[in-house]
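Lab channel / #folding
Pinned by the channel admin:
"Please post every new chain as: sequence first, then the structure tokens as a reply. Keep commentary short and put observations after the output so the thread stays searchable."

First post following the new format, from NK:
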Amino acid sequence: MVEDTFARSMAHWSEDGRAGMEDFYAFARQDYRVLAEALDYGRLFARLRQRRGADLGVLDVACGSGKFGEALRSHATLGDDPVRYALLDPSRFSLAEAARALGPPFVLAETYPCTLQDYDGPAGAYDLVWATHALYALPADELRAGLARFLGALAPWGVGVIAQASSTSHYLRIYDAYLAEPGRTATPFTSSEQIATALTDLGAQPHTLRVSYDADIPAGHPALTGYLQRCLFDDTLTLPDLLAEPALGGYLRGCQTPGGGYRFRQDVDLHLFGLPHEDLAALATGARDLPAA
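Reply from TO:
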């Protein structure tokens, strides 16, 4: 028996978990760069300003340490007009980290120290609401309630963006392998496929794009163990411990490269809603339409 996924996640989003967080982002920054380059966010912002006729308001759901906002500022062309940037996260440590990471054109607005399913901010307050690699610890039985709050935060003309790893992606596969060990009964990570189903059930009609890429870790990299521990929210297992477990070790050995490093495949889906599908597809710069089911 291990502590449940959300509780272990919260424990790692803390000052005590900073070293593991930094090891994780030695490689996970790529996740946010890929997302920042997958859509033409400058064009999206301009389109929303036409609809609103004023400065934009953004809500970053489960903002973590603010890496997506950082990636947009570094890898997207956003323009100089200010964007009000609200933060939502149950971890006050994360809220503080994300606030420190903001810079032009983003200007700190409201902060909400809560989970998505407990969000009680004003309805329809934001032109753009996004959650990027953010909803893994949202349990399946609370998913629809959380996404209903997400949709409720959007202005009538607003656009929603949810980026989540699919069931074929490293983040889901390694956690499933971790939970395969007898006695581990924690809640599985929520997948992109579950989010797509819940959004459709709620009438959001998402348009889904996929970005696929590899996270390559050289042999002997000092951050490897910390990265893997953070993927599992478990810093009690060393790399030899991880490799010794049947399912987890089998998964990791399957990801090893000839040189002794690791290559982890990521298939990440972007669920977009709030504009006609043809308009959303036109914003894609580094993503592709998923084939019809």
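NK: The chain is about 40% helix and 20% strand.
TO: also worth noting, The chain has one domain: 5-286.
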